[in-house]
Design a protein that fits this description.
This is Phosphatase. It is built from seven helices and six strands. It is α/β, with parallel strands linked by helices and about 200 residues long. It has a single domain, classed as Phosphoglycerate mutase-like (Rossmann fold), CATH 3.40.50. It has a six-stranded mixed β-sheet, sandwiched between helices.
Length: about 200
């Protein structure tokens, strides 16, 4: 059996500004760095066979801070990248709401209906996560793997574990920066063991 320790990257400057990141990037704040180090301390006694991160700068920085001085192989996988938000990327929440009111409403209230302006749908994100998990099980049979990824990716993973539809994408819990989720993966069966835990940080 595989246990996935899935974390969202630490808080970024654009998170603070409520600015859409998607495939663009923003540096971690001091809080983001501190929270990542705190998670590293929390996981200090957990043995990981590998770390797999989204190739985005914010996730790689988080992964390295959590890893610390431990000799754990760190690789990247593009399928763990955040949803491509197309024309929204780099814009603040208020700018997106003003320029794309219908799409903005669908994003938050009818996610199964959302179609980005030049980006991805939530279903497309979920499909690449399904492929990632399938390929992972074909190469790893047991052990703990640390996954460093993004909020929407984690939300679609929750739906897979719960076997529920995209309309429930934004159901609780909220995915804070560096929050820890643990998923067991066994012959395709996915089970949530811990959900978005933030005991290691100050909110």
């Amino acid at each position: 059996m595989i246990h996935l320790y899935v974390i969202r990257h630490g808080e970024t400057e654009w998170n603070k500004e409520k600015r859409s990141q998607g495939r663009l990037d923003s540096s971690l704040t001091e809080k983001g760095k501190k929270d990542a180090r705190s998670l590293g301390d929390r996981l200090d006694n957990t043995e990981f066979c590998q770390i797999i991160s989204s190739p985005s700068g914010r996730t790689l920085e988080t992964a390295r801070l959590v890893k610390g001085e431990r000799m754990i192989p760190l690789t990247t996988d593009e399928r763990l990248m955040e949803i491509d938000l197309g024309a929204w990327q780099g814009k603040t929440e208020e700018e997106v709401k003003s320029l794309y009111p219908e799409e903005f409403d669908a994003y938050w209230n009818e996610p199964e209906r959302y179609k980005g302006v030049g980006g991805e749908t939530f279903l497309q994100v979920q499909q690449r996560i399904i492929k990632f998990l399938k390929d992972l099980e074909e190469t790893v049979t047991e052990g703990n793997i640390l996954i460093v990824t993004h909020g929407v990716v984690m939300k679609t993973l929750y739906l897979l574990c719960r076997n529920t539809s995209l309309k429930h994408l934004w159901d609780p819990p909220f995915i804070h920066g560096t929050s820890l989720t643990i998923v067991s993966l066994d012959a395709g069966k996915k089970e949530l063991l811990l959900e978005a835990c933030v005991l290691h940080i100050e909110l």
